[in-house]
Specification:
Chains A, B: Catalyzes the attachment of proline to tRNA(Pro) in a two-step reaction: proline is first activated by ATP to form Pro-AMP and then transferred to the acceptor end of tRNA(Pro). Chains A, B: Pfam families: HGTP_anticodon, ProRS-C_1, tRNA-synt_2b. 2 copies of one chain form a homodimer. The first copy, chain A, has 490 residues and is an alpha+beta fold. The first copy, chain A, is 35% helix and 29% strand. In chain A, α2 packs across α6. Chains A and B meet through β2, α2, β3, β4 and α3 of A and β2, α2, β3, β4 and α3 of B.
Chain lengths: 490, 490
């Protein structure tokens, strides 16, 4: 297979696919819309999971596991929820196959379920049905639970990591005695997602609220973090929902308060998914391949020996072993690639393609000079570095790469937030510059829908730190009190 | 809810259910056969996952993720495989619901799948279909991949953790250039499972091979670890399969060897599941509740203050904080329960029920005497222990509990391996003593089947360390060269 990657300039979409496939991150499976996450991709996802899981636990959440299947009737209980998910769900109708006598395996029609089961697209309904049994009094609250799981949404157009029929995610589901507590939780988790995106993924995000059109089906308010990809399109990287008492009412979950009064329970839910892999790839990578932020890189440093004979290699290996031990002592993950079946040039290109943040090459002359060659993946800058103090140098370099990657993405993002004051300007910006367009909107779903139909741009969010500013809607000309961020999005 | 637990003597099965429910480990969901794993239960499963995952990675395996759904046609490709799983699988036939116009949510018959999808009961077929694209040459081998996933088998009789329609597990799927390598891998993973069972779960296991009747559907050889529960019934705690070239042939996966010749790839697969939770509970717990081996306990030490006033509590808390810091420094997980809403007696009973290995109680008099009260969960022995050196005392105590639990289970297990030399003796032992019965068997599936039908006992395994010994089959009287282990089993 050719390792050549289509350039971003030539075809951004193909560039993305090339990286996913050629860096061995994922591939399409034989099942429509479902992907295989390959070891290279899964290792990054595991690092993400570990970091997020710790963040959740540090804020008092526990993990649990709820059923994959949801009875169809549960779905119908929250009207807007079912409307949001019913048209794209996998339905289990039978529980047995049989041999038809001619050697064909067919569905056994005698094994039809009385009630169809839906493969969960999200778990609010099955979880709130469960919480009903767990909550009687304010003493049982709050419930702060997270689940790592697979979910299925029957998307018609799929793209690896970005939009797949089955994907992996975490979904938090919390229950509270007051609206205020539930809102605080919703916001707390949004900030955790933003912290993760910025400080681990190295992807700057805008924290905001969705317009009513873009809200989660069943939520009173949806908060989101929005990132910008290198082609100027936005990507929603995580959402946190204030569900009010909608699901408590749908599943009749009440509690007795301190005052002895019965009330419905307040809820939040929040999730991020393997879509974050798409954000990581598209925010940072270049025409040579993937670039992984050091804090999420399964291998942070790869060491390649350049040698002529066995004796040469033995000397290099002795030094590398000692260096590796020191680096591992600092928690750095190191791979020494001394395979004799591949040449150094091949290895260099391969680790570049796969995004390993730092490559160290060491040859006979380096040993004599007590130096090594250090190449950083993000800028491709190579330097000859003394062996003395190399461990500290590498640790600082990893930190520097992490920071540089974030700053580069931030600069790009900030350059791509542009104000538009007329619909013509808006459309021109969308086509010529893309990115986020900050514009006045009259606050109606109708206007939002019209703009979407005409330009494919949606309101990504109303930023949390928005300033109030009098203006007129770019589309309707009606009065507006604040700008919102539009963009074309993944 | 009453925290009273049915005694093992009164009703072992109810005792088990009581512990699962009352220690908040899991509960039945609204979906037939599917369970909700509650935070207390899931926290133990997470510890198991972490330990196993490290063992897999230390032996060269990587994690990946394959689709939840398997096209029906894949199933049919390996004849014995489909026969083994077809009668108990969830079948997805549609991908959309709709509103029927009368407010009812119904399956949209226009959204019928061309080919039905099976919710994976195990992933050999989808994985080997994928491996076909990954393997061309011996250089692509071995492939050593593990997946953490949910699977579904439509069991008609379910029991929490032991047998559920959906369960969580890991499944390893490896591909090799030679039969020998695949067999070595199969055996390596069996020994890893045994190591985990004995040194972490504190459950002694017998390593053996299954008789042909009990083999995995599609395997040439199934290895297993068999544990004994306190009621004398056996529990299969893990299996590792040598699949030969069956799946490679079914999915046409060939490779070019070093000699340039084409051959089918050799395979192994191996798995353990949330069933291990059942083993943990049934092997160790008592009539007061759960007993968790310290190495898998989410909370290893709980500290309960016994105080009269705020001043008392402040002094105790100051000491506890300092003790906690020292214990955490040694990697011990500690919980300080200073809730003022519950009395110490309630807390003691609750942590006993939930199986926390060590409880420390500390009151005003303890502070004066520079002592604490330490209670170990397994033996319920309480001791007054000096504060000086308490951290080291606790660490040794946790190790001692882990060892004692294993030794106790081992002694019980070893007392319950009994030889039977006639069918009458066999049946009497089964009814009166239970446990493993070591008996001669003529090696035929027919005899095994007859014994199963008449006694409900199955051949649990042919131990790996079996001695050859001439004898006659207890059932048929035919010649036999070795004893095998029978038992009634979960």
């Amino acid at each position: 297979m050719s390792k050549e990657i289509t350039s971003r300039a030539a075809d951004y979409s193909q560039w993305y696919n090339d990286i996913v496939i050629k860096a061995d991150l994922a591939e399409h499976s034989a099942v429509r819309g479902c992907m295989v996450i390959k070891p290279n991709g899964y290792a990054i996802w595991e690092k993400m999971q570990a970091v997020l899981d710790k963040m959740f636990k540090d804020t008092g959440h526990s993990n649990a596991y709820f059923p994959l299947f949801i009875p169809k009737s549960f779905f119908s209980k929250e009207a807007s929820h079912v409307e949001g998910f019913a048209t794209e769900c996998a339905v289990v109708t039978h529980y047995r196959l049989k041999n038809d006598g001619n050697g064909n395996i067919v569905v056994d029609e005698t094994a039809k379920l009385e009630e169809e089961l839906i493969v969960r697209p999200t778990s609010e309904t099955i979880i709130w049905n469960t919480y009903k049994g767990w909550i009687q009094s304010y003493r049982d609250l709050p419930i702060l639970i997270n689940q790592w799981a697979n979910v299925v949404r029957w998307e018609m157009r799929t793209r690896l990591f970005l939009r797949t029929a089955e994907f992996l995610w975490q979904e938090g589901h919390t229950a509270h005695a007051t609206a205020q507590e539930a809102i605080e939780e919703t916001e707390r988790m949004l900030h955790i997602y933003a912290d993760f995106a910025e400080n681990w993924l190295a992807v700057p995000v805008i924290r905001g609220r969705k317009s009513p059109n873009e809200r989660f089906a069943g939520a009173l308010d949806t908060y989101c973090i929005e990132a910008l990809m290198q082609d100027g399109k936005a990507l929603q990287a995580g959402t946190s929902h204030f569900l009010g008492q909608n699901f408590a009412k749908a599943f009749d979950v009440k509690f007795t308060g301190k005052d002895g009064k019965l009330d419905y329970v307040w809820a939040s839910s929040w999730g991020v998914s393997t879509r974050l892999m798409g954000a990581l790839i598209m925010a940072h990578s270049d025409d040579s391949g993937l670039i992984i932020p050091p804090k999420l890189a399964p291998i942070q440093v790869v060491i390649v020996p350049i040698y002529k004979g066995e004796e040469d290699l033995a000397k290099i290996t002795a030094y590398v072993n000692e260096l590796t031990m020191r680096l591992k002592g600092f928690g750095v993950s190191v791979k020494y690639d001394d395979r004799d079946t591949q040449r150094p040039g091949f290895k260099f290109a391969d680790y570049e393609l796969k995004g390993v943040p730092v490559r160290i090459a060491i040859g006979g002359r380096d040993l004599e000079n007590k130096t090594v060659e250090v190449a950083r993946r993000d800028t491709k800058v190579k330097q000859t570095v003394p062996q003395e103090g190399l461990d500290i140098y590498i640790i600082k370099l990893l930190e520097d790469i992490q920071t540089s990657m974030f700053n580069k993405a931030l600069a790009y993002r900030d350059e791509h937030i542009t104000e538009a004051n007329s619909y013509d300007e808006f459309k021109q910006l969308l086509d010529e510059k893309a990115g986020f367009i900050s514009a006045h909107w009259d606050g109606t779903p109708e206007t939002e829908q019209k703009i979407k139909e005409e330009t494919k741009a949606t309101i990504r969010c109303i930023p949390l730190d928005n300033k109030l500013e009098d203006g007129v809607c770019i589309y309707s000309g009606k009065a507006s009190t604040q700008r919102v961020l539009f963009a074309r999005a993944y």
